[in-house]
Automatic annotation (TrEMBL), chains A, B:
SMART domains: PKS_ER. SUPFAM superfamilies: GroES-like, NAD(P)-binding Rossmann-fold domains. InterPro entries: ADH-like_C (IPR013149), ADH-like_N (IPR013154), ER (IPR020843), GroES-like_sf (IPR011032), NAD(P)-bd_dom_sf (IPR036291), Quin_OxRdtase/zeta-crystal_CS (IPR002364), Quinone_OxRdtase_PIG3 (IPR014189). Keywords: NADP, Oxidoreductase. Residues 14-320 form the Enoyl reductase (ER) domain. It comes from Corynebacterium ammoniagenes DSM 20306. This is NAD(P)H quinone oxidoreductase, PIG3 family.
Amino acid sequence: MTDVMKAIVQTTEGDPEALEIQEVPKPQLQPGEVLVKVAASGVNRADLSQAQGNYPPPKGGSEIIGLECAGEIADTGDTDRSVGEKVGALLVGGGYAEYVAVPEGQLLPIPEGWSFAETAAVVETACTVWSNIVMEVGLKKGETILIHGGGGGIGLMATQIAKALGATVAVTAGSAGKLEVCQKYGADILINYKEQDFAEELKNKCDVILDIVGGPYLKKNMFALAEGGRMVTIGLQGGNKAEINMGVMMMKGIPLHGTTLRRRSLEVKAEIVRQTIENVWPMLEDGRVKHHIHEVLPLAQASTALKHLVDSTHTGKLVLEQ
Amino acid sequence: MTDVMKAIVQTTEGDPEALEIQEVPKPQLQPGEVLVKVAASGVNRADLSQAQGNYPPPKGGSEIIGLECAGEIADTGDTDRSVGEKVGALLVGGGYAEYVAVPEGQLLPIPEGWSFAETAAVVETACTVWSNIVMEVGLKKGETILIHGGGGGIGLMATQIAKALGATVAVTAGSAGKLEVCQKYGADILINYKEQDFAEELKNKCDVILDIVGGPYLKKNMFALAEGGRMVTIGLQGGNKAEINMGVMMMKGIPLHGTTLRRRSLEVKAEIVRQTIENVWPMLEDGRVKHHIHEVLPLAQASTALKHLVDSTHTGKLVLEQ
Ligand SMILES: NC(=O)c1ccc[n+]([C@@H]2O[C@H](COP(=O)([O-])OP(=O)(O)OC[C@H]3O[C@@H](n4cnc5c(N)ncnc54)[C@H](OP(=O)(O)O)[C@@H]3O)[C@@H](O)[C@H]2O)c1
Ligand SMILES: NC(=O)c1ccc[n+]([C@@H]2O[C@H](COP(=O)([O-])OP(=O)(O)OC[C@H]3O[C@@H](n4cnc5c(N)ncnc54)[C@H](OP(=O)(O)O)[C@@H]3O)[C@@H](O)[C@H]2O)c1
């Protein structure tokens, strides 16, 4: 094997359109890591933030964009894996490339009958959704969950997992088209946030909220939470600042959580992946949870993929293939 | 038995000095309740808020002040308890009286060798502290907890329980005298909040914060929390409003909780009491957790007791005896 590989490199800092394929050094394996030859990479909104210069990789992480992929193990490092094993992988970066180094705890099997592209389209959302709605805030059967951005990659995954868990699902989205897709994937209550006030519709009714908007929705989310409800914020698409009335938090007994999967420790990530394989992979294999790929593009068109996110014209996931 | 009893009645709404003993109807027992003849009642800061008109009792609750007491069962209602049984009791109200009706799930035994006054001085704080630092935010051995208001009734109880659990305890208080008492009860790190900035002293170090200040401390508390730390707010002595940066919450992964014991359901209260008996009562009986009674006053002097809270000249608990 040569020491170089192809990868997406940003030629102008902060410009998501300035992405092109170049030759870069192959990643060096750390103890406990395997080298994966990437066949397909999932596209996430965080990739756009990173390309815009707003979401730098954690210290020591790859500068290359890309939080998830699927492919074959090309080098097993010091692990007991096998060369040629087909895997999905949760990454802190480096997915938009020919090869990526992956801690063994972040490998997932390919679900029975799924392609690389399909697998790359669900790893990040499955791990994010499971770790947040179950591990972080304990969604239970019979509860009502409000999922903001129901038509996004996270939103469709969250809707399906929540339904599989026996919850009632309310979603927000900005168009009738996206809401229709949400309904197809199981959403029970559809709210067009451009036309309706979700807080009025769901006043005191939500046991769990999965939030991606942040500041501008905080007061409304607290209004929509039932007594004993829990919220977890994983995105700040509307901004990070808000005024909070802590009296409401106390009187209703509503804990507010916030997490970023990428910043979790190796141990926590491995546990999240373990639980995701145990709980979500069977849902993928028996069809309770489906992927929803908006479009598969060649890796060289990474800029075009990110442009879809800027315009928010997509529903579900974008995938880059090699 | 006659149908009337003595109780503290407020003669001018909103005036904590206008409290006097009057004859009022004895409480009627609901299914599952026993009648306790009160020997001693603990005084809590919420009693002051209620007397000031800021903390009305929940619907259906007694209008009489008082969240905890100790005494003897005078009427067993439909329960299997015995008349004459000595008990402590967690109340939603009604403690400043000769008799009070108590759901059976909110009765606690008198710790071995403890008096009524001593028991009445620990019921509310023990249940509040256990339910929050353990049940709500899971304080673990080896972790660091910051306890605001370390010299108060809650503060001294929280310090001792946290030490018994094997945590490192930091406290804030407003005077050297109170900090000295905190140290005597086990606090490891003493911060005079009038002279030092706790957030600078404890930057990124706190795994758990037990907060009673609210709005004005929110930003500082989030600064003091370690990654993965958890905060629970149970008092708003500084006010309820704050600006929050949700990005910090996400990046550090720090859930913010808020609770009020009085508003919890009967079932949750019973579970809190059960766990408190199981976990804290042994600590009381073997001396790991001690009461700290500032002063015992006759019930008729309820106003004087509340005056101490206004002036904040007390350390630990005030108790009213009959
Ligand atoms: N913290 C973590 O660990 C983590 C992990 C993964 C993802 N995330 C975050 O989760 C969010 C969703 O990610 P994604 O990959 O699903 O992105 P996505 O596919 O672009 O979906 C985002 C969706 O949000 C909708 N939206 C925008 N503003 C909204 C508002 N005010 N109310 C309701 N919906 C709104 C958009 O729909 P419309 O066009 O209808 O507005 C879009 O469908 C992003 O912010 C991402 O950064 C966080
Ligand atoms: N949510 C619930 O379920 C629940 C249950 C019980 C109690 N509580 C609340 O918990 C709080 C404490 O109750 P308590 O009975 O322990 O009252 P307490 O005995 O009056 O103690 C309160 C302590 O707070 C200190 N303090 C005031 N401002 C402070 C500040 N800015 N920073 C640090 N310390 C400060 C005071 O000390 P200095 O004189 O030194 O300032 C005082 O010692 C109250 O707000 C009460 O309402 C809530």
